[in-house]
Automatic annotation (TrEMBL):
This is dolichyl-P-Man:Man5GlcNAc2-PP-dolichol alpha-1,3-mannosyltransferase. It is a multi-pass membrane protein. It comes from the Eukaryota. It is an enzyme of class 2 (transferase). Pathway: Protein modification; protein glycosylation. It comes from Nepenthes gracilis (Slender pitcher plant). One of its GO terms (cellular component) is endoplasmic reticulum membrane. The lineage of its organism: Eukaryota, Viridiplantae, Streptophyta, Embryophyta, Tracheophyta. InterPro entries: Glycosyltransferase_ALG3 (IPR007873). It catalyses: an alpha-D-Man-(1->2)-alpha-D-Man-(1->2)-alpha-D-Man-(1->3)-[alpha-D-Man-(1->6)]-beta-D-Man-(1->4)-beta-D-GlcNAc-(1->4)-alpha-D-GlcNAc-diphospho-di-trans,poly-cis-dolichol + a di-trans,poly-cis-dolichyl beta-D-mannosyl phosphate = an alpha-D-Man-(1->2)-alpha-D-Man-(1->2)-alpha-D-Man-(1->3)-[alpha-D-Man-(1->3)-alpha-D-Man-(1->6)]-beta-D-Man-(1->4)-beta-D-GlcNAc-(1->4)-alpha-D-GlcNAc-diphospho-di-trans,poly-cis-dolichol + a di-trans,poly-cis-dolichyl phosphate + H(+). Its main location: endoplasmic reticulum. The keyword Acyltransferase does not apply.
Length: 124
């Protein structure tokens, strides 16, 4: 998967490099300008700004969630169970870190006591 992401990033960089080299300021400032890609001129601007853009965003997010639930997280049986697994994993890691830290401190304390007893200076 990481190799695929690296490949996609490489293609994007190689395709955008000639434009970035020739006009870097215009390339960066116009990167989010979708006017030349998406043409919604058939919708009046007040309607587009008020309702259409928000509905496009909601539909897009809904499609992303549906894809995540039915395609990307099929092994975990859905996106909700996937996030539960992530949360449980984070909680377990925190517990293991806390336990190991407590064991480490206890181990250090016992070693100090043993060293003091061997030197004849017992700690109270």
């Amino acid at each position: 998967m990481i190799l695929a992401l690296i490949g996609a990033a490489t293609v994007q960089i190689l395709l955008g490099l000639p434009f970035f080299v020739s006009h870097p300021k215009a390339y960066i400032t116009g990167a989010d300008n979708l006017g030349r890609v998406l043409n919604f001129k058939f919708v009046l601007e007040p309607i587009f700004v008020a309702k259409f853009a928000a509905s496009l965003l909601i539909v897009h997010l809904g499609l992303l969630l549906a894809s995540a639930h039915y395609k990307w997280c099929t092994h975990e049986r859905g996106i909700v169970k996937f996030w539960r697994l992530i949360y449980a994993s984070m909680k377990l890691n925190q517990q293991l870190y806390t336990t190991s830290k407590a064991l480490k401190n206890d181990h250090i304390h016992r070693k100090r006591q043993l060293g003091d007893e061997l030197r004849g200076h017992p700690r109270v």
